[in-house]
Design brief:
The protein is an alpha+beta fold and 165 residues long. The protein contains 4 helices and 7 strands. It has helices at residues 17-27, 45-48, 111-122, 138-144; strands spanning 7-11, 60-66, 71-79, 97-102, 127-132, 148-153, 156-162. A 4-stranded antiparallel beta sheet has the order 1-2-3-4, with helices on both faces. Strands 5-7-6 form a 3-stranded antiparallel beta sheet, covered by helices on one side.
């Protein structure tokens, strides 16, 4: 894909759940030289809650695709959790947690940046949280768009973005 020129972004629907499972797997940060985990890792309750039963009233996100090649390139999705079912990047019940992944052969084309720009342009949320390994290259993108580290636990950072103004 040349410079992601064919990039289209559309809202996620319930029918995108299978691709979200793939994206959840792609979002797992695995340091260089470490073997990839098996797909069974997605059955873990700590991970499966990010995609299971996608399409609830509070679920929100976007799918990036190449309109010419008819290929899904990545997704960004938000899900709200509670104290009793907290995600890795949980801050509070009112702040949705962001997950994002770009398929490995489409990374480096600015797709993640475009997905985040599209999300912020919606103006829907006053704050968004996420969890990221400090070794994950995506942390540079998150910092660049305004996410700030609020907690460090278990080798990961919980970061928070607040709507400017």
């Amino acid at each position: 894909m040349e410079n992601a020129l064919n990039l289209q972004i559309r809202p996620l629907t319930h029918s995108d759940q299978a691709f979200l499972w793939e994206c959840l797997y792609f979002a797992i940060h695995v340091p260089l030289g470490t073997p990839l985990p098996g797909l069974d890792i997605l059955k873990s309750p700590d991970l499966s809650k990010y995609v299971a039963d996608w399409g609830r009233d509070t679920d929100f996100g976007f799918l990036a695709f190449d309109s010419v090649a008819s290929k899904n390139l990545g997704a960004l999705w938000l899900r709200q959790f509670t104290t009793y079912n907290a995600g890795y990047g949980y801050v509070d019940d009112q702040i949705p947690e962001l997950n994002m992944a770009v398929v490995p052969d489409s990374r480096g084309w600015g797709i993640g940046s475009r997905l985040l720009e599209h999300l912020f342009a919606q103006g829907k949320y006053p704050a968004i949280s996420l969890s990221v390994s400090p070794q994950n290259p995506a942390i540079k993108l998150y910092k660049r768009v305004g996410f700030k580290k609020v907690v460090e636990k278990g080798g990961s950072w919980t970061m928070l973005w607040k709507k400017p103004g």
